[in-house]
Amino acid sequence: MIRQTTKKRRGTRFRQAQAIIKGSMQIVTYHQLDTEKQSIYKLNLVLFSLAIIGSLVLGARALSQNQNFMNTLALATTVKPETFTELYFENHLQLPSTVSSNQTITFTFTVHNLEYKTYTYPYEVTLDQNGTKTSIDKGTFTLPQNGYKKVTETYTLTQPITRAKVDVNLTNKNQDIFFWIDGKTSSNN
User: Fold this and answer.
1) What is the pLDDT of residue 77?
2) Cross-strand bridge partners of residue 185
3) pLDDT value at position 36?
4) Among positive and negative, which fits the CA dihedral 165, 170, 172, 174?
5) How many domains does the chain have?
6) Which end of the chain is more exposed for a tag (fewer CB within 10 A), N or C?
7) Mean pLDDT for the chain?
8) pLDDT-derived band at 72, boundaries 50, 70, 90
9) pLDDT at position 137, please?
10) Are residues 20 and 65 in the same domain?
11) Structural domain for 52, as ranges
C-alpha cells in the first residue's frame, strides 16, 4: 500500500505541476486587462515603436552620408541599358568572292547606333593582301540614337590578287567586319 500511495502522490504532483504550467500560459487579451495594465501596455508599445523608428531613421541617415553605400545603392537600383553599335554588310550573300584584275567591286555596309546618345563614327575600309594594306576609303559620320547609315563602297582592282581581305573598321570602336575575295586564274575562268 505504501507503494501505491507514493505512486498516487507522484501522479498528483505531476498533475499539479501541469496545472501550474498551463495556468501560466493562459492567454489574456488586451480588453481583459484592467485599466492600469492597459496604460502600461500602451506605453510600452509606444516606446518600442519609437525606438524602432528612431533606429531606422538614424541608420538611414548614417547610410545616406556614406558615399560608397549610395554608389552601390544607385548601381543596384538603376537599370542601365546595354550600349553597342551594329555593323554589318547589306546583302551579305551577294558580296563578291572571285574577282579579276581591273574589275570593280561594290558593297554596302550599315552602321546602327544603339549607344543611347549621338555618336560619331570614323571608319576605314582597306584591302589586305598578304599583310599589305591598301586604303579603299576613309570617312566620318555622326548618328543620333537609333540612327542608321548605309555606306556604299566601289573599288577597282588595279593589280591581280591571289587572295585578299576587304575590311571595314570603325576605328574608335575597334569593331570591324570583313569578307574574302579570291583572284581569278586561267583555271577558274
Assistant:
1) 84
2) none
3) 81
4) negative
5) 2
6) N
7) 84
8) confident
9) 97
10) yes
11) 2-77
Q: Give the end of a domain, one of 77, 104, 124.
A: 77
Task: Judge if 94 and 49 occupy the same domain.
Answer: no
Q: What per-residue confidence (pLDDT) applies to 27?
A: 73
- Out of 77, 94, 113, a domain closes at 77
Amino acid at 163: R
| Confidence (pTM) | 0.59
Residue among 179, 177, 183 nearest 159 (CA): 183
CA geometry: angle 156, 161, 162, nearest 5 deg: 145
Statement: residue 129 has pLDDT above 60: yes
Give the separation between CA 183 and CA 189, rounded to whole angstroms: 10
Query: Can you tell me which residue has the cell 498533475?
Result: 15
Instruction: Tell me: do 98 and 45 sit in the same domain.
Output: no
Same domain? 109 vs 152: yes
One-letter identity of residue 123: Y
> Are the C-beta atoms of residues 157 and 105 closer than 8 Å to each other?
yes
* Rounded distance between C-alpha atoms, residue 98 and residue 161, angstroms: 10
Q: What is the mean pLDDT of residues 47-66?
A: 85
Report helix, strand or coil for 25: coil
> pLDDT: is 119 or 22 the higher one?
119
Mean pLDDT of 24-30: 68
Which residue spans within the chain are E strands per DSSP?
84-89, 98-99, 104-114, 119-129, 132-143, 148-156, 163-170, 175-183
| Measured CA distances, 151 to 55, 68, 107, 110, 183 (Å) | 63, 46, 8, 6, 25
Same domain? For 98 and 17 the reply is: no
